[in-house]
Specification:
The protein contains 15 helices and eight strands. It has two domains: 2-39 and 281-383, no CATH class; 55-255, Spore Coat Polysaccharide Biosynthesis Protein SpsA, Chain A, CATH 3.90.550.10. Helices cover 50% and strands 12% of the residues. Helix 2 links the parallel strand 1 (55-62) and strand 2 (83-90). An eight-stranded mixed beta sheet has the order 3-2-1-4-7-6-8-5. By secondary structure, the protein is of the alpha/beta class. The radius of gyration is 22 Å and the shape is globular. It has helices at 2-34, 68-76, 116-124, 148-157, 175-197, 213-217, 228-239, 258-274, 276-289, 292-301, 306-320, 328-348, 355-363, 365-377, 397-401; strands at residues 55-62, 83-90, 104-107, 134-137, 143-144, 162-169, 209-212, 243-252. Helix 5 crosses helix 12.
Amino acid sequence: MEIILKAINVLLYISQIWLMSYFVIVVIFVIADILNVRLTKIPAWNKPQEKNYSFAVIVPLHQNIDFLEPILDSLLKQQYRNLHFFVIADDCPVIDLPYQDERIHILYPPAALHSKIKSIQLALSNIDEQKFDAIAIFDADNLVHPEFFTVINSYFNKGYRAVQSNILPKNIDTTFARLDTINDQYYNFIDRLSPARLHLSAHIAGRGTVIDLKMYKSVSYTNFFGGFDKKLQCELAKKYVIGYAPDAKLYDEKVSDGNSMQKQRTRWINAYFRYFSEAWKIFLRGIGTGNFRLAFFGYNNMRPPLFIQFFAAFALFATSFFVLPAMLLPWTVVLTAYLLSFLYIVIFKNSLLSVRQSVKAVMQIPLFVSRQVRALLNIKKANKSFLQTNNYKAVFIDDIMQGNTAK
C-alpha cells in the first residue's frame, strides 16, 4: 500500500510540474520580450537565394459566395504578380464575377464536399507541380494586405518552406469579436512570435498559411471534419522549421456572437484531442533524436486549451492543500507571474485594441470561458459534421487600409 501511495505522489508531482511548465514558458517569453532577447545568428538550414516563387492561392467556399469578390479583390491588388487563384465553390451557385483575370480558376465539385480538407484536395488535383512552388490557403472571409506575397516570397528566399502569416481582425465591434481578438493576440505571441524569435517552429493557423506544394501533397488525412492545420503542422515540423512573418498581414473576421464562438471552439477543441497523439509522437521523436526544436514543438502542441489549463491548475492547487503542501508556494508564485504576463500580452502588447477596450475585454473573459465549456461538452458533434462558422463582414481591402472597418 505504501508503494502505491508513493507512486501516486510521484505521478502528482510530475503532472503538476508538467502543467506548471506551460505557465512558466509564457512568463519566460514575456521576460524575453521585455529584455528584447533575439537569436540573430543565421540557422544552418537557412540558405538565402533570389527567386520569384510561383504561388497557387486556394480559397475554399462553402455554400456562401458573398465573400468571394472581396477576397479576390484583395488578391488581385497584390504587388507580387506570380500568383494564380483557385476557388473551390463547394455546394455553391454558379459564380458571375464583375471582372475577369486569366489567373482566376473556379472549380465546382461534382458533388457537395462539406469539408475544407476535401476542397483543398480538389484544388491540388488541378495544380501542376511543374508550374507552382507553393500553395497559400485562405478562408473565404479573409482579406490580404497588398504586400502579403512580397513578404512571403522574401521568407521563401530565406530558406523557409512553410510560413504562417500575421492574422489581424477585420472587425472589433462586439464583445465576442474583441474577446476573439485578444485570444488571437495571446496565442500569436506565445505560439508564433516568441518561438520564431528563438528560431523555433511557429504554429500554423489553417488560414494565411503558405506551404511548399510537394510537402503539402505528402500529408495524408484520415479525418475530413476539421483540424487539418493540427495534422499539417505536425507533419511540417518533422522536416522544416515553420516560419512566422509578422509583416505578411491577413485580415480575418472575428466571431460576433456567443453561438458562433461556441461552434468555432467545438471544432477546435475536438481537433486538439484528436491530434494530441501526433504531438506526443513528435515530442518523443525530438527527445529520442536530441532535437530540441522538434521536442519543444511537440511539447507545446500538447498544451491544453487555456481554460482547461486553469481548471486543472486550480484543481491541483486545491489538492496540494491535502496531499502536496510543498507545491502551494510554487503554484502561488507561478500563477501570479503568469497572470501578470497574460495582462502584459493582451493589454500592453495589443496594438489592435485600446487599453480601455482590452481591459474591458479581459473583464468579460468569463463569457468566453462559459462558451468554451459548452463547446467542450459538445465536441462529439465535430466528428459528425462540418461546423461552419457564420460570417457577416463583407468589407473590402480598401476599407481596411483606409481604417473604415467596424470598431
